[in-house]
Amino acid sequence: MKSINEFPAVQPLDEHNQALVANVHPTDWENPEPTEVYNLVVIGAGTAGLVTAAGAAGVGAKVALIERHLMGGDCLNVGCVPSKMLISAARNRAAMAKADEFGNTVENVGTDFPKVMERMRKLRAEISKIDGAKRFQELGVDVFIGAAKFGEGKTVEVAGKTIRYKKAVIATGARAVELPIPGLMESGAMTNETIFSLTELPKRLAVIGGGPIGSELAQTFRRFGSEVTIIDKADHILAREDADAAKIVQEQFKKEGVKLLLNADTEKVEGTPEGVKTIHYKINELSGTLEVDAILVGVGRQPNTDGLNLEGVGVKYDRNGVEVDDMLRTTNKDIYAAGDIAMKWKFTHAADFAARAVIQNALFFGRKKLSSLTMPWATYTSPEVAHVGLYGHEAKDQGIEIDTYTQSLEHVDRAIAEGETEGFVKIHTKKGSDEILGATIVAANAGDLISEISTAMAAKMGLGSLANVIHPYPTQAEAIRKAGDLYNKTRLTPKVKSLMTKFLAWRR
Description:
The chain is α/β, with parallel strands linked by helices. The protein is built from 15 helices and 23 strands.
């Protein structure tokens, strides 16, 4: 078995990280003797793999689960879980920093960064029990630790053992890509897979990429006290989001002191023995340099397809991942794939629900389609940005005519009370109807608020009906109801109003 020291991403080797590894890659783990044949062999124990394995075992299937590194995958170890813990700590500091706006006094606001990171490691270790090898063994899953490789005749080889299957699932996920920037990796640049091993706060941090990962961590480290600069090729951060939403977040970043180098190409990185890194960039043919103490690469993912022998079993794949149909079946009818390895939606919740579809389709002749899912997502900046369905520009590209209803938080009493008026609820409907096609929310807790609209879309509930749902007052969710009111007001046309006026005059 591998030693804990062979996993550089799990640093430092304190009691919390040792507890983490003891759960998700126990060094004393003994792989079981394979049964004669498994209903399902799952390769990869990230979210997609864990949900598939647990769900299949729960309905009586004989399941083998294989993981070569850390069970829990990116989300637990180097993604959602640790990042949200840091974001939470940074928000807490930001709230204290503006306490005087609310008439409160908080002196000497600061951050004990080592303590922040220790808290993260402690809580991550506690959560890891849920994804651990022992728990899945207790669920009836045969857990194998080692690198998997497809063999002949519907078999998988792992750690010297041969596992036979009826159906298999590839859930190996993706990893940070190495950008082709000279000197970048040699400079010790971090990715999401290594930044959570920090024990000291970088004084000056450059973040390459202004997408969700880069933006979340840039704001977080700025709030902790780092001097942060985002370098991005686009003309604004969160380039794939609604432009109005991205603008609000970008303005907030500027207020907080996050520096932006936009429309910028990173050409090379040079390091010094003292640890200073000089980034050479170009904006509109004008060259410049930036000196920092640390670099985070927050852009680029590549699928984990290496070593699986996918060619040998007829599974097509490319640089974007494994090719699947709408029912998540690969080009080999007995092999499915789910999660980041195969899907455009690279979210934990997307992997979760794709795994549920795989269980139905692989074991019970199901016809569950990925395209049938209503998929929301959120970026956890402050304010948050959440979205579901179509963007306005997507509807235009697809030739779909829409009506758009936007409710600013400036006119929502709870947002005013909280001092969080920078944001909105924007809902797109099919033109001339209240059928919701998509929505974007910018608010402190947009990730929570978007679920109401996702529910309405999944239930085929129109915007007009949302306006008739009573919302507690005062809440920020009232903005959704108010957006519904905007739709209902469009039904009061001049002709309708004239008829109603005449009717009421007759009634007097």
